[in-house]
Structure formats: C-alpha cells, structure tokens
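Today's session is about reading a structure prediction critically. Students often jump straight to the picture, but the first step is always the sequence itself: look for stretches that repeat, for charged clusters, for runs of hydrophobic residues. Only then move on to the predicted structure, which in these notes is written as discrete structure tokens rather than atom positions. Here is the chain we will use throughout the hour.
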Amino acid sequence: MLAVLIAAAVALPTPAQLPTIPRLIQQARPVFCAGTYSRDLAITFDDGPSPYTLRLVRVLRRAHVRATFFDVGSRIRIWPDAARASTHVGELGNHTWTHPPLTRLSLGRVDTQLVETQAEIGEDGGGVPRLFRPPYGEATTAIDRIARGLELLDVRWSEDSGDSLPGASARSVRRAALAGLRPGAIILLHDPHPWTASVARVLFRAARRRGLRPVTVSKLLATQPPTAHQLDSTGTERCPVP
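Below is the predicted structure for this chain, in token form.
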C-alpha cells in the first residue's frame, strides 16, 4: 500500500507541468494579458446578457471569430436565450451574481456571488466557467484565493474601451478599442450598449486587416501564456510588454 501511495504522489504533476489555465489558477492572482509571440488576442464583453446580446452574437458568427462573455448570473435568468446563444460563438465567464463591488463584501458573500453564478451558467448550458472578472476590476488577494478554491482565474484587461465612462459614444469607444488591437491583448467592452455590436464589427475587420485573430481568453492564454514579467503587472490597464 505504501508503495502505491508513493507512486501516486510521484505521478502528480508539478505546477510547471500543469496546463496553462490550471497553472495560472493555482497562482491566485489576476491576469491582464497574454504573451505577444503569436497573432491572437481576446475581445471580451462584460455585464451581459442584455437585449443587445443576440445582435452581438450575429456579428461574431458572421465574422467567424470567438469572444469571451463575462456574464452576470442574475441577468441570465432574464435573457437565458441570449446567454445560450453566446456559448455558440465563444465562452462564458463568471462576473458575479449581482455585480457588486466585491471589496466591500464579506468573504462569505463574495463566495456566494461566485458560487451562485457558477451554478447558473452551468445549468444554462454554458459549462462551468474557469474564468471570472471582478466587477470594476477590483479584487484582493483573499478574493483571488476564493476564486482559486472554485477553480476560477481572475481575468482583467490590457485595454479599456471606455464604454462605461460618462459621455462615452460609439466613436470614442471604437477609437480606444482600435488602439488596443495587438497580439496578446485582452480588450474590455460591455454588452449592454446599443453600439457594441457595430463597434465589434469594426474591430473584427481591423483585426483581420492587421493579421490578428480574435479568440476566447482561454484559447489565448493556452496558446500564448503570459510571461513572468506580465504576471508581475501591478494592475495597470495597459499590460507591460515583455
């Protein structure tokens, strides 16, 4: 019996041997971008689903690209068809149950926000998420340890389109997002805007012209893992270039 236990222990992979996403989850700290040595990038949409999600899904389908949707759990019950449609053009991430600022909650309530959203997305057919994005991009090391316990990776962004700022317009959002198109980028957009689909259409066309390929965050991190230097980012919106 002892020999069997020793053999099993020896067979366990080291952190360095784990696939990229599980390895990053074990580190329990946020990821802001991916490596820059290939031509992939990720365009992400927060705060859905919404009345505009299906329009956005059609744009992705026609462009033959994929994206990551960080959905709010309570909104999935309002627009379940939109959430399910999103799974056909990308992946769903956990954006909490009611979108509260997590740093103002007890750790027990943070856990509830994430657990309930995991269950809702899983039941709705999106699969159990491996990624989560804290509302407003605010989390602590204790919150990231809770995420690790749920096998979730905290994903932020390297470029904020500014679409949640007062006075934002389709033009300003488009300009900011286009400036962030580069290999390894994770670009932040928000689902519940009437202009999001048209902005996404422009981004996908620009990416194609530049030889870039929009993929899901999971695909991006798996094929272009962030460097140690990028993981040491202090949380600035623009990820440091290695």
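Discussion point for the tutorial: Residues 20-231 form a domain with the TIM Barrel fold (CATH 3.20.20.370).
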